[in-house]
Amino acid sequence: MTATTIHFVRHGKVYNPDHLLYERLPDFHLSETGRRMAEATGRYIADSPQMNTVSAVYSSPLDRTRETAGAILDVLNPVREARGQEPLTLTTDARVIEAGNEFRGKRIGHGEGALWRNGNWKLVANLWRPSWGESYAHIAARVGEFAREKVHEHPGEQIIVVSHESPIWSYRHLLETGHAEHWMFLRHTALASITSITFDCGTGRVMSITYVDPAAGIA
Predict the structure, then answer these.
(1) Beta-bridge partners for 210
(2) Backbone angles phi, psi at 107, to 5 degrees
């Protein structure tokens, strides 16, 4: 049996002093804490005899995911070079980008928060099926298309994919329950965490899903 493992990594903490919903907006970068999170996850991957054999690194095209992937590569590539292997480079793919959201660029909160003004509350009438933006089913479908393609392209290998909370969890929830819809406040996808999904290359069947949070101690 040939198996491929995709390690989905959530990006590290973002510098966002105005507490805006940045969604797909440009120029939202990792904070200093976020960079340390990404470095901790990179060290975890580099120190793992299994995970440091990954053959490719992908990410969403947004700043925070590319920066997280770059921090991982900075730690991983010296391990590869010590084995006489060529360094890996980053490839971006829009299919693992953050979910679309009608609140982008707004501050979400109480009082003057955008959620409670100008009728915006109508967009969150149903938290299971997000009327405020891209549906969970659509998110999971595009991530699933990406995953199937990469399993075919990397048979018997492991790859890293740096993405965002909603895409990672929506896809995982679909695989585990048969539907992508979920209660958004019960997601189990910490910043800089790793959700590893292993597929049987022949059938596409999911063999295992595991989760680890290497940056849990960083604040």
Answers:
(1) 196
(2) -95, 125
Q: Which domains does the chain have, with CATH numbers?
A: 3-212 (3.40.50.1240)
Give the burial class of 59: count Cβ atoms within 10 A of its Cβ; 0-12 exposed, 13-18 middle, 19 or more buried: buried
Alpha helix stretches (DSSP H) within the chain: 32-47, 63-82, 136-153, 165-177
Angle at the Cα of 32 from the Cα atoms of 26 and 35, rounded to 5 degrees: 75
Is 63 in contact with 29 (CB distance < 8 Å)? yes
User: Quick one: 50 exposed, middle or buried, by C-beta within 10 A (0-12, 13-18, 19+)?
Assistant: exposed
Q: What tens digit of pLDDT does each residue of 81-95 get?
A: 999 999 999 999 999
Say whether 57 sits in a helix, a strand or coil: strand
In one-letter notation, the amino acid at residue 36 is R
The string of pLDDT tens digits covering residues 163-194 is 999 999 999 999 999 999 888 778 899 999 99
**Contact criterion met (CB below 8 Å) for 76 and 45:** yes
Q: Which residues pair with 7 in a beta bridge?
A: 160, 196
d(CA 22, CA 98): 10
Which amino acid makes up residue 201?
C
SS3 163: strand
Task: Say if residues 164 and 98 touch (Cβ distance below 8 Å).
Answer: yes
Question: Is 151:4 a contact under the CB 8 Å cutoff?
Answer: yes
pLDDT, one tens digit per residue, over 105-163 is 566 654 444 554 555 545 555 555 555 678 899 999 999 999 999 999 999 999 999 99
